[in-house]
Design a protein that fits this description.
single chain; about 450 residues; mainly alpha; two-stranded antiparallel ribbon; binds zinc ion
């Protein structure tokens, strides 16, 4: 290739032969180092996959990607993509190996892992080896179109099959049988486990046998299936009690806690801490709910009779909340920054902490729980900065300590690959493409398992 013709402005003098050779060497060096970086990326993804699987990020971060953003400085999109590719490569050994040998670029592997399955991996690896990054991108786009079509049909079929049958059995019991869409099922399962927990913990908290077990109160504890049945009853009663209207999102999850004043001030103090429907919650949870809530103070006498009901007030008045959002912008937990949050009293109002900007910090739901119920602590220093500590007392730094990098990282990388006997040279990642025109539709028709079985005219 004539290097001069590639440049927008043609140089007046042809570069000397020595200069051309120098540029060739430069190009080779770029290609070789790129292949080395891809090989190193494979190692990085292996480490991320293990760290993710072993939950190493679960020290107050909501995901492995959030941890990567904080520790490594990747932007959120790139961090999520690394984790996704790392997980995908766990089941795609051929693609993983091609990356580890520097034969396939990270760009190509990233694109291929969007569609590859163990079943199609080999064919897609061939695409990666033969084509340029642009070819790979186009094939993957077409491949996904076929996948989406199949998925849409599958979703429609599943949605149509939703059903719930409720009918009396011969002995008068009522039988329930049904199929729910996955997201509806998830809500039901969550509601059942919440109700089960409420019934179970209530029975324990009051230290009396659960009344739902009726006549066999003295017998062994109810089985899981029996508990589920009791939980469903509680859910039905709750729905009828509150009306079927789920309400505005803000009200939907509103929780009223009846709590004795000593409990709010000290989690270990004796006293009751119950939700409006009578479900028992831990003192830590009631402190969290009370941190930022509508507050109705009900004073109880020693027998539990209500003596006095105060007016309903917001713990954090709207103007102060606006100021808090303006100051904090998002969750203050290191590495989080989620936009929406709850106002947390650094010193709880029940302990005499004031509801002022300097005693408040915005925390997302996840991290508000971490602070109240999981042992994380916040301190506010004179300058206004917040210090977060892990449950074991170690500081959770806002900025992580920098990684140690050798003086000559490229040389270190080359040496390391040499000791691993990796053969990487300037042509390691070169595609097999010879310049033919790519027919994406045809390529997918012959390779995609669904396109092969079904109508090829879905692809243009
Ligand atoms: Zn709080
Ligand atoms: Zn957060």
């Amino acid at each position: 290739m004539n290097t001069a013709s590639c440049v927008g402005i043609a140089p007046i003098i042809e570069p000397a032969v020595g200069a051309t050779a120098g540029l060739d060497r430069l190009g080779d060096e770029i290609a070789e180092l790129s292949a080395h970086l891809d090989a190193a990326t494979a190692r990085l993804l292996d480490l991320i996959r293990e760290f993710d699987a072993r939950g190493g990020w679960n020290t107050g971060f909501c995901s492995c990607a959030a941890w990567l953003t904080w520790r490594v400085g990747l932007d959120r999109g790139a961090a999520r993509e690394r984790v996704r590719v790392a997980r995908a490569l766990g089941t795609l050994p051929r693609l993983a190996q091609a990356l580890a040998r520097g034969e396939l670029s990270y760009s190509k592997v990233r694109a291929l892992t969007r569609v590859a399955t163990p079943e199609t991996e080999e064919r897609l690896l061939a695409v990666g080896r033969a084509g340029t990054a642009e070819h790979v991108e186009r094939i993957v786009r077409g491949w996904r179109r076929v996948d989406r079509l199949a998925e849409a049909q599958e979703t429609a079929r599943r949605h149509k099959s939703r059903a719930l049958h409720v009918y009396p059995d011969e002995d008068g019991m009522v039988v329930i049988r049904g199929r729910l869409a996955p997201e509806v099922g998830a809500v039901l399962i969550q509601a059942l486990s919440a109700a089960r927990e409420a019934l179970y913990q209530k029975a324990h908290a009051q230290d009396v046998p659960a009344e739902t077990s009726g006549a066999d109160a003295s017998a062994e504890p109810p089985t899981m299936a029996q508990q589920q049945a009791d939980a469903l009853a509680l859910i039905a009663e709750t729905a009828l009690h509150h009306g079927i209207d789920p309400g505005a999102p803000g009200e939907r999850y509103q929780v009223v806690v009846h709590v004795d004043a000593p409990v709010l001030a000290d989690a270990d103090a004796p006293g009751q801490s119950v939700l409006d429907d009578g479900a028992y919650v831990s003192a830590e949870t009631s402190q969290r709910l009370a941190c930022d809530a509508s507050r109705v103070v009900m004073r109880h006498d020693p027998d539990g009779r209500i003596l006095e009901v105060g007016a309903r007030t917001r713990t954090i008045p709207p103007a102060l909340r606006r100021a808090l959002h303006h100051r904090d912008r998002g969750c203050r937990f290191p590495g989080c920054g989620l936009r929406f949050g709850q106002g947390h009293h650094i010193r709880h109002w029940a302990h005499g902490g004031p509801t002022t900007l300097s005693n408040l910090a915005l925390l997302c739901r996840r991290h508000h729980r971490a602070v109240h119920e999981e042992g994380y602590t916040i301190e506010r220093h004179a300058g206004g900065e917040l210090k977060f500590h892990r449950p074991d007392g170690r500081l959770l730094p806002e900025v992580p300590s920098p990684a140690t990098v050798p003086n000559d990282p490229v040389h270190a990388l080359y040496t390391r690959h040499e000791t691993q006997e990796l053969q990487i040279h300037p042509r390691t990642a070169i595609p097999g493409w010879l310049g033919e025109r790519l027919n994406v539709g045809y390529a997918i028709d012959v390779m995609h398992p669904l396109a092969m079985r079904r109508l090829p005219q879905t692809m243009s």
